[in-house]
Amino acid sequence: MSRWAFLRTRRWLGVAAIAVVVATACVLLGRWQLDRHETRAAANDLVTTNYDLNTAPLADVADGAVPADAVWRSVALEGSYVGEQVTVRNRPVDGNAAARVLALLRTDDGGLVVVDRGWLPLGDGAPVPPPYPADEVDLVGRVRQAESPDARTAPEGQVYSIDPATVAAAAGVEGADLLDGYVMATSEDGAAPAGLHAFPRPGTTPGSHLSYAFQWWVFAVGTLVGFVVLARREAAEGSAPAQPARPSRRRTDADEEDALIEAQLRQGPPVGP
After folding, report:
1. Phi/psi at 75 (5° precision)
2. Crossing angle between the packed helical segments 209-239 and 10-50, to the nearest 10 degrees
3. Which residues contact 7 (CB under 8 A, 6 or more apart)?
4. How far is CA 3 from CA 14, 17, 186, 209, 217, in A?
5. How many CA within 13 A on the CB side of residue 124?
6. CA–CA distance, 185 with 189 (Å, rounded to integer)
7. Nearest to 225 by CA among 23, 21, 5
8. HEC per residue, the chain
9. What is the pLDDT of residue 272?
């Protein structure tokens, strides 16, 4: 019989299946972390490439929609704010609980652009945005792609995502020529938007996703190696020759006499009357 025959037993088939499942899960989790690392690296490249470029007219950078390779590019546009301001709550900024303040800018050519004017720290009550400029403004900001719509129903004056159509509806503004994307304001008429906190430069640290990916792959290899080690140990124990039992030594008359003498010595000499 083969020394590895035990691997065909129900117990060891179960152990092998568990090892394969755990190793596969670790490989997939490592791949997921690698994908996150690559996504983060691509986003960092956009910041590095576009953030410090010279300001360009919005029409030269985004024609109806913000291209993926234009994100964080500084743009200039002119127009007037219309409608009500809208807030996006629970958007932390530098570790601070914050609400972002959105408004619709109608440009001189008739288009509509969602502008993220800045942020307010969250307090006990609902944030109250400061009023936007009543006159036409020269706006400078950084273009961002639109966020996906959120199916949840937000309270009045709030939205859950910066989806231009959703923001326009919440602000009570209608218009067909709505930019598919939005602009994060850096200045209005040459100064930071009054009463609002400015957004910091985005970080470009790579994060720990790559190291996490390697850790998951090490766990996958370790699981398979552990199975092999256990199997080899089981095979070695199964093939080792059985050790014969050592027969017990029969007690002789001399052994009995020695036992009696030792018992008497422990009791001591007899005590007289």
Report:
1. -130, 160
2. 160
3. 13, 16, 231
4. 19, 20, 74, 43, 31
5. 0
6. 11
7. 23
8. CCCCHHHHCHHHHHHHHHHHHHHHHHHHHHHHHHHHHHHHHHHHHHHHHHCCCCCEEHHHHCCCECCHHHCCCEEEEEEEEEEEEEEECCCCECCECEEEEEEEEEECCCCEEEEEEEEEECCCCCCCCCCCCCCCEEEEEEEECCCCCCCCCCCCCEECCCCHHHHHHHHCCCCCCEEEEEEEEEEECCECCCCCECCCCCCCCCCCHHHHHHHHHHHHHHHHHHHHHHHHHHHHHHHCCCCCCCCCCCCCHHHHHHHHHHHHHHHCCCCCC
9. 47
The position carrying tokens 């766990």 is 219
Measured CA to CA, the distance from residue 132 to residue 137 in angstroms comes to 10
CB 86 within 8 A of CB 158: yes
* Token pair recorded at residue 170: 């919440």
Mean pLDDT of residues grouped by 10 in the chain (273 residues)? Answer: 83 93 96 94 90 93 92 95 91 87 92 95 80 94 94 90 94 88 95 92 88 95 94 81 60 66 58 46
Helix, strand, coil tally for the chain in percent (to 5) = 40, 25, 40
Task: Please check whether residue 185 is in contact with residue 172, taking contact to mean a CB–CB distance below 8 angstroms.
Answer: no
Report the alpha-carbon distance of residue 121 to residue 90 in Å, rounded: 10
